[in-house]
Amino acid sequence: MAKRCLPFLLLLQLWLQLAVSHSIVKFLPGFQGPLPFHLETAYVGVDEAQDVQLFYYFIKSQGNPKEDPLLLWLTGGPGCSSLSALAFEIGPIRFEEKEYNGSLPALVLNPHSWTQVANIILVDLPAGTGFSYARNPLAFQRRDFKQVSQADQFLRKWLMHHQEFLSNPVYIAGDSYSGLTVPAIVQKISNGNNEDMKPLINLKGYMLGNPVTDPTFDDNSKVPFAHGMGLISDELYESYKELLATYWANDDDVRKALHVQEGSIGEWQRCNFNYTREIHSSIKYHIDLGIIGYRRLIYSGDHDMVIPFLGTQAWIRSLNYSIVDDWRPWHSHGQVAGYTRTYSNQLTFATVMGGGHTAPEYKPAECFAMFKRWIIQEPL
Predict the structure, then answer these.
(1) What is the CATH number of the domain that holds 85?
(2) Which residue has the higher pLDDT, 68 or 236?
(3) Where is the signal peptide (predicted)?
């Protein structure tokens, strides 16, 4: 009898380990009326005994969610919350830009949200980022390869409980520091698919914005970039926006609306830089993934001095790909929005005119136009 029960108990244990209790968020403090889009939040447990609880926001495509691509977005930092992507970059809401008066910051719709053409998962990764947390000190490891493993676990578990998206094309995306980890995550997922890990992920490619890639290229491009550009200080603008996000995310009503586990973290921080770097260059991943044949979009704001586009251009040239479509302008709303070049091995590079670090914060309309064309496989 005990032997017959064993398979059932093992299946039950597996189900409990994979269990994801998600909640639909219909109202958000600071936003007037019900949300006009599908927002889901929850935690996914990863690592042994699910000691790391990763918080995510999921927004269904406002187009055709059954067929539109599924985008897993990882904000950079390292250790910056995905709330940055939700409210400052590619998500369907933005903070209303007005002088802060001490009340809860107001939210408005973002007319340039990437969720118009894609299903998007925004995850706080690793533990200690945003609303994600670890249940014990031993589980609180914040390093590159741990993040790579946790991202793979997260996505496979998420898809187990959202099987209606198993056939959707999947892309992994991020910006800034994610330029080091996203290619490694794509490689990890690809290897898992080859080893027949379940569920199989319909992985099609990846995209990176203003990506950290290799210090030889990134750092050595800063002096030539500064020499050729006139720079406008935006410290006050950045601190203003981060004021707003901190007040909003630390409000008790906001945390209740998002179904954040009570007592799991202290004060919310936009970025937690307590982190161990292990991947010092992601070029080898780009080379391997190019051989496999994944679609890739690399874009840079041309006013970004943190990761200047000159360095990004240089490491892409070092791959020695042949040019398919040479350097040319691309347009948005009848204006030049940047420049682009298409290479062999399904790699597209684009600049975003006037974009800083990161480009969607500064040029949301142009970046949405770029993303929409690329994701549906149209020329920029």
Answers:
(1) 3.40.50.1820
(2) 68
(3) 1-21
